[in-house]
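User: Show me a protein chain along with its predicted structure.
Assistant: Here is one chain, sequence first, then structure tokens.
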Amino acid sequence: MTARSIAIDRIVDGKFVRLLLAGTLAVALSAAAQAQAPSTSGAPSQGTTKKKSSTAAPVHQYDRALLHPALLRDKAPAEYKVKFTTTRGDFVITVTRAWAPLGADRFYSLVKHHFYDNASFFRALPGFVVQFGISGYPPVSTAWKTAVIKDDPVTQSNLRGYVVFATAGANTRTTQVFINLADNKRLDSMGFAPFGQVTDGMNVVEMMYDQYGEGAPQGSGPDQNEIEKQGKPYLDKGWPKLDLIKTTTITSPAAAPASTKPAPKPASATNP
């Protein structure tokens, strides 16, 4: 999938715009989004972002299975819970497969193989959304760039706390996800299909660092394309205050252990 954000490329009133969401896709802004969130003109879509810098970056490893998206196609349980441990605290997402089966299955596989570990909340817009889902490891981002899944019908509204995949148009969902910070019902008609909701710790989600504003090029936040290319070091250097996902765990029902043959963390942001 090409780099874009929770943002999605769309034609609105005859004009080309970008909508918001996390991943390799661009974040597009819509007139409706601007009306409801004046300072957050973008709608959820996949895009680029940056992360915080540190003198000694923690040593992280990723599951090598993540380099082969075509093999990660687990069918999710009818309902499952995922605990997110972050730099801001813990929160829990409860996924209901019937809401959006394809999205629920994709999220299950990603969490099971710890795709989101060491990834940043690169886009946080008060009163709108918090977005994440670009890997801190460039090789992993490259592997998932074109691993798209088809759209699910929108069966639930984009209410506060509901969790949704970002898109870049029809049938373009990959790994970026956003959490609605308000009732964003306007996103329903744009094809954003919620697959779960935050059932514990919504106050933690609302505390994610949000002072960098919209991502590039609309604002001074990180560029999603560069996050994909350079990984976490890019964010650490330019946006050191962004909050981070330490780890994610499927807590109910217990998931079968994933095969974990870790690959070493890239030595530098320039390594692919």
